[in-house]
Amino acid sequence: xxxxxxxxxxxxxxxxxxxxxxxxxxxxxxxxxxxxxxxxxxxxxxxxxxxxxxxxxxxxxxxxxxxxxxxxxxxxxxxxxxxxxxxxxxxxxxxxxxxxxxxxxxxxxxxxxxxxxxxxxxxxxxxxxxxxxxxxxxxxxxxxxxxxxxxx
Amino acid sequence: xxxxxxxxxxxxxxxxxxxxxxxxxxxxxxxxxxxxxxxxxxxxxxxxxxxxxxxxxxxxxxxxxxxxxxxxxxxxxxxxxxxxxxxxxxxxxxxxxxxxxxxxxxxxxxxxxxxxxxxxxxxxxxxxxxxxxxxxxxxxxxxxxxxxxxxxxxxxxxxxxxxxxxxxxxxxxxxxxxxxxxxxxxxxxxxxxxxxxxxxxxxxxxxxxxxxxxxxxxxxxxxxxxxxxxxxxxxxxxxxxxxxxxxxxxxxxxxxxxxxxxxxxxxxxxxxxxxxxxxxxxxxxxxxxxxxxxxxxxxxxxxxxxxxxxxxxxxxxxxxxxxxxxxxxxxxxxxxxxxxxxxxxxxxxxxxxxxxxxxxxxxxxxxxxxxxxxxxxxxxxxxxxxxxxxxxxxxxxxxxxxxxxxxxxxxxxxxxxxxxxxxxxxxxxxxxxxxxxxxxxxxxxxxxxxxxxxxxxxxxxxxxxxxxxxxxxxxxxxxxxxxxxxxxx
Lengths: 152, 489
Fold this sequence. Notes:
The complex is a heterodimer.
Chain A: E1 10-15, E2 20-26, H1 29-44, E3 45-46, E4 54-62, H2 65-83, E5 85-97, E6 105-115, E7 122-123, E8 129-130, E9 136-140, E10 143-151
Helix pairs in contact in A: 1-2
Chain B: E1 14-15, E2 20-23, E3 34-38, H1 41-47, H2 52-59, E4 65-79, E5 81-90, E6 95-96, E7 108-117, H3 118-121, H4 125-135, H5 150-159, H6 161-166, H7 172-176, H8 194-200, E8 213-222, H9 225-231, E9 237-244, H10 247-268, E10 280-281, H11 285-320, E11 331-336, E12 338-347, E13 350-359, E14 362-363, E15 382-385, E16 393-398, H12 400-405, E17 409-410, H13 420-426, H14 432-438, E18 442-445, H15 462-471, E19 475-488
Parallel strand pairs in B: 3-4, 18-19
Antiparallel strand pairs in B: 1-2, 2-3, 4-5, 5-13, 6-10, 7-9, 7-11, 8-9, 8-19, 12-13, 14-17, 15-16, 16-19
Helix pairs in contact in B: 4-11, 5-11, 8-10, 10-11
């Protein structure tokens, strides 16, 4: 596992024969989901510092934490693809367990996007979908860990 | 959500004959049928450490599966289903599983032939590659020549390749030489989410990224002269192969319905060994909604390959100063290798309608089958098998053995051997494009530095895959195609 990005936060890419995986660790759930987004963003594109960005607000819900991770990664991938842009940064404002019986977990976040182009983001790997394959969100070392595989 | 307890230890396999291995139905809890893997000894040696065998066993637990959970010789680790997996489900009591079709719905291959020979192309190969690279948008974020309106996109998803031909992008004969004539019935554009629409609207006519490609090739070996003649292939003739799918639209359709079926599985208390195998009973509203949206995405993919083929014809005409008709740029065939379809097959001696899932597998109907286009009915359905960009691809035709053993299915490609990361690590410091140029192969790519991910060492040798498929009686090899120019996303 590479060096931490912030206080107890770190991520790495995981090998898969045809596609890619990622693992993120963080002290709490919002930081964990942000760290997973950072791992996804690094796989998908190179984003130059200072590139102009737009911000979108997103909200997703799911029946459990793995489902919420799937929905979060789906949101990031779909948002970026539809906008012809790369995910540059995310701020997860909250992950709460309330909601209705069908979707008790709710995530609210802001996502910064940088458009692809000569002065903008440069694509790396075309990340196209999240998967449920070996998807885990679990307590780890006093914090949390998230493992996911992505279709590329 | 209920998951079956995971077993530990390697999946037991026993050899049946020179090309088949059995995973007995008692190998893992919940298996309803055996797993059958098509492989030679060398392939099986590599597979023993690959999660693909566990995935073959997992697929065997799906409700309503009949025959066996099948793995073609190009099988490798996928998600839920292995890539190279085939499974047929009974209408009554069976399920459809979006993971058994794959994220890139109707990812497939189209092959054009021409009256050109290698010496016609070789002197201007670099220029031709540049022009094709310009004409066919590729890579992440690639957009087509125009953004489709909502009404246009709905028409594409309903009519598929026929929409493109009517819009001036192709010839009517192309439709006759396309699986399902380029449009699956039952498509419902209304079942496709707004996000899928957003992703698809600007992407029609684009190649995409990953393992998708466009290749100019030459026929360098004929193995079945009679079938080659029927397919219009001749030794030394130049061909063009297109490999791509339904772009962001298809991925979003799969993702949306996978999430919906994840909830269905929980509600119906279906026990699955892998959440990615989420499924819904055939005939249920969830299954019907998925199959209608899957057909819409499949039709988008056929229209996508139709537009790319039209761009190829226009580019060749411009570069060679002759019309595509005069260049003889006829379509050999277009097929899907990520799809589910209802087909009639023998199950325990009785002809039944079954839902055949092909995930990284190609339909391979034999001579005489009514779904084989009339010009090819005497030899069998063309099976297009892309290899890797440094070696070769194959054209085969379906054989009777496929109908008897694999629900009319065969391999779809070479199959990956190593991860992208491992390929980059092994080729650190190697300029893949320059190495290919030394072999006479021109490569154009959005990210030349990422070509190592798709280099030959990352793939099995397609020759071995074709050899096993043929020895098992699934296909008859017709011709080998050697790459001359490769356009990568």
